[in-house]
């Protein structure tokens, strides 16, 4: 065959339609009528159409093959009928190829016979046969044509009348080509042409699903190509044949008739493909091609398994039941030489050795002795009407057999199979699992293979040092667990435990500079499973078992570690994988904590140093898997929880709690059994430690106890009851003695001392006799001795120390126990059965063996436990995520922190930051406070903003550009240069936003960040809504303010130099560079991106329980000892000075951060009644602590603290943690300069407290400290109006709050306000001077005049308010319950003292108001309501002192012009008051003394040297008094009233001293009677005059 022919054939093969659906395809095939043909055809693409006539195409292929055959010497003399197509005589209608039903699938019968009737090989036809064949030999001798050639001629004759090729009988169409394929005499090129032809027929749809007898044709074709034989020639041509066979098999399985193939056909085709893969003498290319074909065919075959399930519908068990009988009828035995085609290709060329048939046949020798053409095949076509048995389409039997063969190829102990074969088998198995893994798990016949042999071989292959084997076995194990893990619970535990043991490094995490170890404290140094006690039969698989099973991790090469990590990563990419580990292992007492170990493994290996013992790919692979785990949990956050079909969450929590206790208790038991049992009893695991049954039940049921310690414990003296209770837990019924002993010795390890062993065997013997009741044995002693003998036999047969020739034989064993059964022998058959069982199957004693037999035994044990372990719960739900994340978050967060700090790749930053965000969202959703706190702490650390002390702000520089400004600070520049820190800052506050209610301990880090940002002008105080109306917290002034507004830019070198020099000369810090400004702007953008306003908005709306940690964090930042605080910031009230300038005055420095803290805690505490009750006490104590140490703090802070405290006092009055007297006394004790600086805020706070009537207002008003505070603030011009307003509300407000306790204080304060109005005298006197000089009305000073006027107005109003208090005096006196004299002194005296004081006020307006008020007060009717002793004091305590003061030079000099008039008014007032109360005074004993004192006062006034006005007013006033007294009969000559003699005498005696002419002028001495009425009339006029007001 030419190379062109081969190439053309290859091109034809390439036209074949696709042979399989990709495993990733999720399309479900549709089947409307339930037939597999309809269903399967929907899966195929439309086949390639053919442009030539199909019959012509077939004819051409026939001619091509026969022409090639005729060129061969063997067929050179054949008839040309195959070329000409024969005579016109039609073929009989019943001439059809036979069915291969009798031979197809049979192995070892040689080539199957394709015909049993028609044209036989012996030529039994009529005389016209030679003519019909068209044969005429040499010399005219007739000869029969070769059957191979004749078949093509017959086919051409049958095609002659064919109109529709799809109606043509398919077996007849294929028959001649199949004969050629099976004929051993044909060469490889001829066989190749036949294969090409058949491939074309399928490719061009000449053979379709509707073709007649397609099923029979497919079986025939399968039989032919799997039994293909040809003469070996050159290897290239031979391998082309094999390649075409592979491609044809692919096409058959995936083509229209693939579903019609029988189980036998499929097995033979798979056997053929595997044989090609196995043959090492074939070229690498062909073997790889065979492997690829096998992969594709397996995809189709295992895809059919899913289709069969769909056909079966809900009744999935029907398929297994239906194929149960055929399950083991098909067998495959692939080998390098077991296939005809492979043998043919490997045979020697014709010139060295003729081609032969089967050397190694399937079931027997083939008929290989005939090499002539006519004896190769029976070629006669069979009748179409012959009976054909229905062919069952392939199903579970062939699929199971293929799976079995592939699995058996993995056996690591089978030396016949090379590693290359195992790699090939692993790849094919992986495809099978990818396509139909879940379906394999559903069918017991397939699942059993997967659970046992496949897992057993795989878990041994992963120990291989061959990287190809390791890599493929890890892939298959991963796919197996991904698809079938539901039935592989213990197998999965074993596999993952091994990976953990291999991959988890026992190396401490290296300390990196700049990374705090607390960031990665959660990463485990070792997996939990290595800490478990080791035992031969316990689970989870301990170290010893893993060693037996070949699963103990050791030193693996870096590439091996990387492959293992890839396997773990592939499993971790299953969304539910980790939660399934948690539910099925971590929450089960007898299983390992696989979820925690896997997360710990990924966490530890994600840290970059793991690359040192693996590869550089391992850290990112582990990090990706770890982040994927978090991603899956985060994706499920918003899913609706699914509870149906899953174990209860509470139940799993309880199991997990018990598991921790049992592990700890078992650990204690292994050290000290009594202590362990006591602990377990105390924890409720063992109900009663004194109850032997409870103890025995626990010890037998747990897998955590050391088997060695278990055996020693139960055999010790004193524990007999526990030993008996343990034995009673075994059911020995129906078990032979060795079987019962085997079950017993698997539970614990026999102790070493013979006495202890005897104790155990004695109790065992008794229990065995009771439970098993063995036939022919009645005595305990017989059982005792035989048990000992069996133990010794077990040691003898299996101890490696005993040579095989020295081991006991049956006779030796029987001799040992002769006569011990009640002086009789045991039944020989009974003894032999025991001997053979022990010899072939060792009783494994825990902790002893590590050979292959132990592996097989341990594996069997594992399989036995699968029954009790149950299936794996697949978890497509989020109900376990909270508990799982709570158990695993620590290593995750720690790893993210470490990686973020040490990484330099932006992609890593992005993934890790997203992981942080997801961790926080998960933790917040499930209320995992500790996890959120850890995330916040880690991110805070990374931001570098959460420093314990605020950053240095001394060099802060404000840059102004137009209306905008930015503060360039050390912190802003540093953060702006650190992209990592900026990223962490943004994510931190993204994490915090919405998680505020979950955060607890980590608030302190957030608070520190807030403080640093605030003091550097990067955030405002977000205290909205703020119930306190207070100006924003002032920050310290920047060191300099630079205006970079639009101006002419001078960029010259000289300009820059002069700018620098001028800055240096002024000792200012240099201006920020453009780079520093840019960094600052980056920081500003970063902070803006944090949206901290949202955080504060959420914070103020948090419930109290969530607010408490934040408030505690804020308060913890306040220093306990303020003297230790050293803050280097500028005072807000002081202008910045250069370092070389004058030093600022010494004193406490202003720290805005502390004000920030205090204001925020106050705002949070004042949120509502609940927060006040819960937080107010702590906040109040902090505020008071600041005020107690006021000397250590700046006045701005003290002022604001007083304001906060007063607001808190107002809100919390109903609580007892703040007391009004304490608060007010603290404030009142401040020095005056501090009061002056803090006056506005103190008054604002006080106003808040007394704004509304209530108990608080009353208590404050009655506190002396309140009035001290007001008095201290009165002198401050800025605060005086506010104080006066408060005072006004107190004095005249409604309801009035003047009470006995604050009456005197209020009057005093009003008096002080009146005194403060004296500043008005200066303006009055200036005005007088200008008037006298004729300058007219003076100009009013615009700045000071309003303040003076306001002070005078307050003074006048204060006098009015003082007078208004007189109306309250009667009520107050009544309420006071004081004696009359004391009450008068308490309430009247303060008012008169204040008014008399103000009657000497330099300001005339105030003085006049005071006189007017004093007169009204003195004339008040309430004044005389008491006894004489009370009101008469108005002279001695009020009027006399007033006049005395007015006579003092210093008083007079304060207003020389006005004081003269005031003296006159005082004199007149004295006389007026005396006259007003004359009647009452006349009844008083002290009237004479009072009158004489008045006269003395008048004398002093007359002689004061004031001038005419007083000298005129005094005599006039005296005249009025004397006339009234005379007319009233008080001042009369002794002749008229002897009782008034002394008054008369003393009066004139005194008057005569300073007014000698007055007596004569009044002429009051006795007169004649007629003159009396005139005098009386005058006296009455004087009396009326006395009641007129003083002008």
UniProtKB/TrEMBL annotation:
Domain (SEC7) ranges: 651-841
Any Pfam family matching the protein: Sec7
CDD domains named among the record's database cross-references: Sec7 (cd00171)
Annotated Gene Ontology cellular component terms: Golgi apparatus
One Gene Ontology term of the molecular function aspect: guanyl-nucleotide exchange factor activity
Gene3D superfamilies, per the entry: 1.10.220.20, Arf Nucleotide-binding Site Opener,domain 2
Polar residues compositional bias, start-end: 30-43, 353-376
GO BP terms, alphabetized: regulation of ARF protein signal transduction; vesicle-mediated transport
SUPFAM superfamilies reported for this sequence: ARM repeat, Sec7 domain
Name the record gives this protein: SEC7 domain-containing protein
Organism: Lachnellula cervina
């Amino acid at each position: 065959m030419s190379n062109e022919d081969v190439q053309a054939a290859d091109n034809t093969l390439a036209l074949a339609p696709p042979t399989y659906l990709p495993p990733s395809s999720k399309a479900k095939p549709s089947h409307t009528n339930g037939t597999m043909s309809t269903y399967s055809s929907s899966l195929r693409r439309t086949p390639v159409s053919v442009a030539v006539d199909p019959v012509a195409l077939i004819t051409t292929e026939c001619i091509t093959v026969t022409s090639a055959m005729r060129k061969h010497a063997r067929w050179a003399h054949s008839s040309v009928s195959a070329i000409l197509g024969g005579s016109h005589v039609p073929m009989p209608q019943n001439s059809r190829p036979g069915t291969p039903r009798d031979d197809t699938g049979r192995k070892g019968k040689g080539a199957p016979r394709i015909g049993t009737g028609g044209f036989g090989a012996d030529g039994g036809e009529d005389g016209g046969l030679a003519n019909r064949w068209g044969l005429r030999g040499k010399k005219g001798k007739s000869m029969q044509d070769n059957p191979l050639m004749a078949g093509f001629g017959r086919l051409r004759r049958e095609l002659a009348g064919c109109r529709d090729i799809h109606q043509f009988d398919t077996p007849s169409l294929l028959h001649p080509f199949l004969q050629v394929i099976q004929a051993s005499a044909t060469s490889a090129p001829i066989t190749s042409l036949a294969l090409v032809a058949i491939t074309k027929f399928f490719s061009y749809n000449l053979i379709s699903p509707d073709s007649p007898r397609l099923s029979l044709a497919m079986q025939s074709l399968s039989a032919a190509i799997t039994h293909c034989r040809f003469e070996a020639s050159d290897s290239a041509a031979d391998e082309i044949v094999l390649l075409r066979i592979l491609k044809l098999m692919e096409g058959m399985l995936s083509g229209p008739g693939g579903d019609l193939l029988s189980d036998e056909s499929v097995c033979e085709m798979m056997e053929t493909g595997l044989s090609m893969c196995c043959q090492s003498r074939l070229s690498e290319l062909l073997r790889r091609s065979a492997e690829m074909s096998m992969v594709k065919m397996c995809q189709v075959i295992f895809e059919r398994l899913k289709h069969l399930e769909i056909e079966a519908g809900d009744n999935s068990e029907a398929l297994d039941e239906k194929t149960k009988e055929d399950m083991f009828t098909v067998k495959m035995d692939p080998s390098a030489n077991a296939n005809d085609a492979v043998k043919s290709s490997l045979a020697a060329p014709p010139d060295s050795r003729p081609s032969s048939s089967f050397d190694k046949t399937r079931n027997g020798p083939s008929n290989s002795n005939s090499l002539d053409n006519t004896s190769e095949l029976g070629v006669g076509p069979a009748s179409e009407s012959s009976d054909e048995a229905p062919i069952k389409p392939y199903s579970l039997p062939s699929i199971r057999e293929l799976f079995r063969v592939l699995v058996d190829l993995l056996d690591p102990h089978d030396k016949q199979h090379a590693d290359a074969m195992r790699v090939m088998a692993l790849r094919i198995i992986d495809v099978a699992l990818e396509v139909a893994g879940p379906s394999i798990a559903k069918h017991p016949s397939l699942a059993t293979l997967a659970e046992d042999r496949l897992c057993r071989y795989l878990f041994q292959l992963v120990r291989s040092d061959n990287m190809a084997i390791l890599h493929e076995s890890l892939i298959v194990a991963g796919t197996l667990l991904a698809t079938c893990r539901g039935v592989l619970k213990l197998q999965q535990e074993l596999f993952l435990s091994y990976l953990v043991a291999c991959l988890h490094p026992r190396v401490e995490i290296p300390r990196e500079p700049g990374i705090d170890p607390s960031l990665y404290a959660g990463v485990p140094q070792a997996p939990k499973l290595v800490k478990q006690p080791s035992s031969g039969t316990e689970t989870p698989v301990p170290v010893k078992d893993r060693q037996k099973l070949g699963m103990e991790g050791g030193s693996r090469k870096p590439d091996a570690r990387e492959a293992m990590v890839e396997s773990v990563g592939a499993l971790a990419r299953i969304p539910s994988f980790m939660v399934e580990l948690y539910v099925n292992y971590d929450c089960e007492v007898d299983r390992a904590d696989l979820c925690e170990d896997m997360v710990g493994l990924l966490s530890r290996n994600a840290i970059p140093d793991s690359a040192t013992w693996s590869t550089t790919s391992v850290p990112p692979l582990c990090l990706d898997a770890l982040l994927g785990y978090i991603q899956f949990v985060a994706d499920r956050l918003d899913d609706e929880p699914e509870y149906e079909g899953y174990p209860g969450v509470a139940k799993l929590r309880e199991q997990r709690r018990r598991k921790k206790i049992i592990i700890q208790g078992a650990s204690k038991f292994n050290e000290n059994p009594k202590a362990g049992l006591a602990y377990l009893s105390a924890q409720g695991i063992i109900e009663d430690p004194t109850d032997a049954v409870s103890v025995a039940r626990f010890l037998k049921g747990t897998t955590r106890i050391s088997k060695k310690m278990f055996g020693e414990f139960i055999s010790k003296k004193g524990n007999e009851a526990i030993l008996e209770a343990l034995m009673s837990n075994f059911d020995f019924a129906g078990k032979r003695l060795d079987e019962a002993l085997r079950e017993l010795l698997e539970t614990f390890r026999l102790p070493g001392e013979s006495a202890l062993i005897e104790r155990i065997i004695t109790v065992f013997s008794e229990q065995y006799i009771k439970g098993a009741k063995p036939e022919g044995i009645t005595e305990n002693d017989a059982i005792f001795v035989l048990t000992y003998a069996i133990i010794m036999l077990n040691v003898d047969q299996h101890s490696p120390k005993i040579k095989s020739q020295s081991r006991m034989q049956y006779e030796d064993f029987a001799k040992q126990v002769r006569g011990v059964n009640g002086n009789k022998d045991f039944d020989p058959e009974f003894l032999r059965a025991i001997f053979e069982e022990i010899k072939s199957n060792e009783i494994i004693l825990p902790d002893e063996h590590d050979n292959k037999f132990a592996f097989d035994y341990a594996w069997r044990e594992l399989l036995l436990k699968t029954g009790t372990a149950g299936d794996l719960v697949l978890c497509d739900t989020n109900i376990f995520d909270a508990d799982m994340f709570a158990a695993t978050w620590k290593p995750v967060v720690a790893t993210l922190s470490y990686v973020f700090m040490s990484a330099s790749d932006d992609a890593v930053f992005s993934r890790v930051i997203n992981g942080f965000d997801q961790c926080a969202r998960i933790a917040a959703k499930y209320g995992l406070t500790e996890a959120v706190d850890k995330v916040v702490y880690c991110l805070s650390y990374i931001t570098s903003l959460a420093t314990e002390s605020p950053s240095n702000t001394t060099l802060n520089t404000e840059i102004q550009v137009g209306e905008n400004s930015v503060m360039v600070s050390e912190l802003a520049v540093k953060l702006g240069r650190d992209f990592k820190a900026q990223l962490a800052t943004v994510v931190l506050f993204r994490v915090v936003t919405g998680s505020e209610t979950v955060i607890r301990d980590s608030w302190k880090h957030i608070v520190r960040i807030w403080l640093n940002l605030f003091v550097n002008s990067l955030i405002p105080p977000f205290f909205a809504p703020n119930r306190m109306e207070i100006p924003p917290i002032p920050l310290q002034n920047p060191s300099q303010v630079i205006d970079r507004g639009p101006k002419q830019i001078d960029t010259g070198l000289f300009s820059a130099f002069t700018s620098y020099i001028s800055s240096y000369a002024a000792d200012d810090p240099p201006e920020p560079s453009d780079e520093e400004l840019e960094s600052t702007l980056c920081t500003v953008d970063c902070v803006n991106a944090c949206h901290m306003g949202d955080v504060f908005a959420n914070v103020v709306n948090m419930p109290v329980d969530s607010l408490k940690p934040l408030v505690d964090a804020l308060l913890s930042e306040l220093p306990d000892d303020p003297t230790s605080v050293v803050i280097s910031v500028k005072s807000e009230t002081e202008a910045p000075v250069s370092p070389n300038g004058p030093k600022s005055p010494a004193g406490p420095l202003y720290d805005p951060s502390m004000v920030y803290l205090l204001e925020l805690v106050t705002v949070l505490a004042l949120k509502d009644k609940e927060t006040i009750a819960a937080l107010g006490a702590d906040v109040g104590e902090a505020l008071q602590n600041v005020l107690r140490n006021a000397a250590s703090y700046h006045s701005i802070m003290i002022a604001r603290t007083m304001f906060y405290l007063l607001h808190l006092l107002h809100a919390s009055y109903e609580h007892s943690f703040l007391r009004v007297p304490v608060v007010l006394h603290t404030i009142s004790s401040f020095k005056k300069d501090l009061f002056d600086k803090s006056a506005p805020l103190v008054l604002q706070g006080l106003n808040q407290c007394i704004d509304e009537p209530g108990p608080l207002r009353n208590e404050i008003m009655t506190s002396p400290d309140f009035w001290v505070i007001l008095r201290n603030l009165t002198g401050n011009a800025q605060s005086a109006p506010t104080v006066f307003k408060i005072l006004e509300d107190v004095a005249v407000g409604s309801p009035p709050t003047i009470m006995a306790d604050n009456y005197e204080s209020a009057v005093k304060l009003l008096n002080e306000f009146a005194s403060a109005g004296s500043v008005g005298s200066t303006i009055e006197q200036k005005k007088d001077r200008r008037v006298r000089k004729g300058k007219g009305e003076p100009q009013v000073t615009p700045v000071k005049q309003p303040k003076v006027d306001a002070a005078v107005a307050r003074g006048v109003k204060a006098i009015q308010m003082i007078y208004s208090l007189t109306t309250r005096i009667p009520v107050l006196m009544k309420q006071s319950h004081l004696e009359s004299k004391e009450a008068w002194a308490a309430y009247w005296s303060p008012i008169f003292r204040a008014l008399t004081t103000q009657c000497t006020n330099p300001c005339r307006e105030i003085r006049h108001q005071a006189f007017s008020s004093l007169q009204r007060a003195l004339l008040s009717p309430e004044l005389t309501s008491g006894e004489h002793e009370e009101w008469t004091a108005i002279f001695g305590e009020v009027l006399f002192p007033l006049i005395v003061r007015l006579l003092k030079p210093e008083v007079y000099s304060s207003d020389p012009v006005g004081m003269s008039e005031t003296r006159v008014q005082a004199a007149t007032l004295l006389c007026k008051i005396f006259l007003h109360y004359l009647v009452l005074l006349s009844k008083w004993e002290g009237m004479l003394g009072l009158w004489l004192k008045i006269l003395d006062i008048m004398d002093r006034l007359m002689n004061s040297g004031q001038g005419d006005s007083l000298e005129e007013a005094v005599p006039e006033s005296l005249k009025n008094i004397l006339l009234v007294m005379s007319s009233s009969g008080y001042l009369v000559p002794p002749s008229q009233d002897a009782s008034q003699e002394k008054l008369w005498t003393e009066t004139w005696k005194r008057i005569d001293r300073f007014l000698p002419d007055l007596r004569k002028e009044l002429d009051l001495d006795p007169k004649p009677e007629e003159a009396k009425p005139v005098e009386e009339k005058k006296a009455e006029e004087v009396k009326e005059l006395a009641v007129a007001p003083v002008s």
